[in-house]
Amino acid sequence: MLTKRIIPCLDIKNGRTVKGVNFVDLIDAGDPVEQAKQYALEGADELVFLDIAATLEGRGTTLDMVLHVAEQVNIPFTVGGGISSVEHVDALLKCGADKVSINSSAVKRPDLVNELANKFGSQCVVVAIDAKQINGQWKVHLAGGSIPTEIDLFDWAKEVESRGAGEILFTSMDHDGTKNGFANEALAKLSSLLNIPIIASGGAGNVQHFVDTFNRGKADAALAASVFHFGEIPISELKQKLNKNNIPVRL
Q: What amino acid positions are annotated as catalytic residues?
């Protein structure tokens, strides 16, 4: 059985890690390179770095940060934010990133998913989907959650899988930063529809939330930010408790 992964997420703005609630009210949460190093030591399975202002500011993810992180960590890490071309991905991978995460650019030009999968392999391509419920329907949002669309979460997830995405990173905007638990019903539906791994994001507040998203949400990995950044849940302790709940993790 494949082990479940625990993934700290570092949202980067102006070179600093930030965290908010429902994608707004951002506060400073530390130095991303130092945090990355610490998370690797604590037993994180992977890391995700999202340059959350890159798309809105019309630029690509900062290569310098990727280089510095690669020098400090020995676990896989994914980088996202403003990625819109094969050339940009090539530069990020050469700086040390293991995977890239694309979101708004994939919606605007779906062929980008095909191009990246064909050039670098599906294992490098994570499609991030930010969605919230509107009149009972999960709708995809772009540009850090600031632009709503009429695109259905589940239809879009199926499409990007067919185009070569290797993983889906699904963030529930309704749950983000609330610490009330993950969107397990939507996650379970995604899992039933897709054959690629699903990373759960948005809502982690305690250990039971992680247990629930692996059992009820059928997630392959769980991503969180503030509970790790502010020391509320030590990763080693979380993994021990998951193990006691018969959830396979790398200890």
A: 11, 130
Q: Which CATH architecture has domain 5-244?
A: Alpha-Beta Barrel (3.20)
Can you give the residue ranges of every domain in the chain? 5-244
Which backbone phi and psi does 6 adopt, to 5 degrees? -110, 125
CA-CA distance, 207 to 23, in Å (whole number)? 22
pTM for the model: 0.91
Cite the DSSP H helix spans in 55-183. Answer: 63-72, 86-95, 104-108, 111-120, 153-163
Overall size of the chain counted in residues: 251
Instruction: Please answer whether residues 202 and 172 qualify as being in contact, where contact means their C-beta atoms are separated by less than 8 angstroms.
Output: yes
Q: Please, are residues 6 and 209 in contact by the beta-carbon 8 Å criterion?
A: no
**Rounded to a whole number, what is the distance in angstroms from the first to the last CA of the chain?**
15
pLDDT one-digit tens code per residue, 169-223: 999 998 887 889 999 999 999 999 999 999 999 999 999 999 999 999 999 999 9
Residues 105-155 pLDDT 10s: 999 999 999 999 999 999 999 999 999 999 999 999 987 778 899 999 999
User: At what angle are helices 184-193 and 207-215 packed, to 10 degrees?
Assistant: 30
Tokens of 169: 């990173």
